[in-house]
Amino acid sequence: MSIALTKGRSARFLFALPIALLAMGSIDLSADTNLDDTLSREERQKIDLSNYRVTDTNASYFDVKARMALLEQTDSTILLQLSDKLSMGPSCRQKINSEPITTRGAIPGFYPRRTAWELATGPLFDFEDSVSNLAGSFVASGDIYYAECLVHYLYRWAEAGALTDFVYDTAQPQAWFASESMLFAAAMAYSIVRPFIDGLEEERADIEQWLQGLALQHSAVPGPPQDSCCNNHLYRRALYATMIGVLVEDNDLFRFGVSAIYSALHDMTEEGALPLEMSRGRRATHYQNYALNYLITNMQVIHRQGYDIFNLEYEDSNIHEGVDYLFQILDDPAALGDYAPQEQYTGFLRDPQYFTWMEIYLSHFDHQRMASLITRARPTYSRSAGGHVTLYFMDPDAQEHIYTDERRQETEAFRGLSN
């Protein structure tokens, strides 16, 4: 199964790395890798997406009002525990008094300067946690205090012109990468609370202008051809573009986000693999999962605008093939064939942030192996790509109790794959 022989054409190659691994730099492709048929930025821009437009600017990535009503009535132990914990939210004064990031600075590489990297990225992660937790506290408690606090918090960043001055060059792209997740963290959290806010018109207008400007500025950087122009960073940029496009009714931004779905399906192999993820050797399985995280979450935003995006077929591919292939290689690494070694890194199976997309997927489709696996990971949380996703998406009847024994949780995460 040569990586270059897919659907009768050359393999398409994408890119998926968590921020720490992104800092390691460019990947080293094998000599027989052919990128000639990868969907380029220019080709992607020629796809006719004129039928896609924003239809509801108040539609978050889930039905917030309906979910809050469900949480008030639920007897699910997991959802009640999450709600109780989040209802005692953070101090608004403390959040608002934190300093926005306005300085122009580069982020060092994860290797070999890990301490410097941690110092540089800490404030970025704090921002993402802050917006996601304030939104979660509002959903859990129904207290408008947390919604208004989130608006005031984001307004302070907007007023300061935060994030507008990032360093970018092809040799040092980490600040550009880090800005991606800050943008979709802010946009997704804000989309949850905005419909419930009365007043604060000036603050909301400034936040939306700031988010739109950042999205346009950030997405205008094309990235190197056959690399971050069109790989997993495209999926990340697409997520903020779609959500911010909805918030400000910018159809061009919204279509930019939609175009990433078409790009992924165009590049997908016959088996459902995302070949650039496969090129990551022992982390191929991890990267296949990581890429799906942004694709599925983005599709959920698009779905909420009334589009049957989860069932989209393009270039003889659909997203379900990518999902099924992930579970094939989790069940049996031999299914990787010649793509990657069978000795795969599986540490990501112990980190709930890598399961958030599965919660979303299961809210639409039955998938026995996925449903079994995610029981060992709940509650799932991503500080940037959706926040408290179990609280927002889990079927109350799906699971009664949280796995608390860490060793059992780790072991059964693997056993669950064959159930």
Would you mind describing this structure in some detail?
Helices cover 52% and strands 0% of the residues. The chain is mainly α and 419 residues long. It is globular and about 55 Å long. The two termini are 28 Å apart. Residues 1-34 and 407-419 have low confidence and may be disordered.
Unreliable segments of 5+ consecutive residues = 1-34, 407-419
| Number of E strands | 0
**Total helical elements:** 18
Radius of gyration: 20 Å
User: What's the helix-strand series?
Assistant: HHHHHHHHHHHHHHHHHH
Helix content: 40-55%
Provide key terms for this protein.
single chain, 419 residues, mainly alpha, 52% helix, 0% strand, globular, disordered C terminus
Give a quick rundown of the structure.
52% of the residues lie in helices and 0% in strands.
How is the secondary structure organized here?
Blueprint lengths: L18 H4 L18 H5 L18 H10 L3 H11 L4 H5 L17 H28 L2 H16 L14 H20 L7 H19 L12 H17 L2 H17 L7 H4 L5 H20 L15 H13 L24 H7 L5 H7 L14 H5 L12 H10 L4
Helix pairs in contact: 4-6, 6-7, 6-8, 7-8, 7-9, 8-9, 8-10, 9-10, 10-11, 10-13, 11-13, 13-14, 13-15
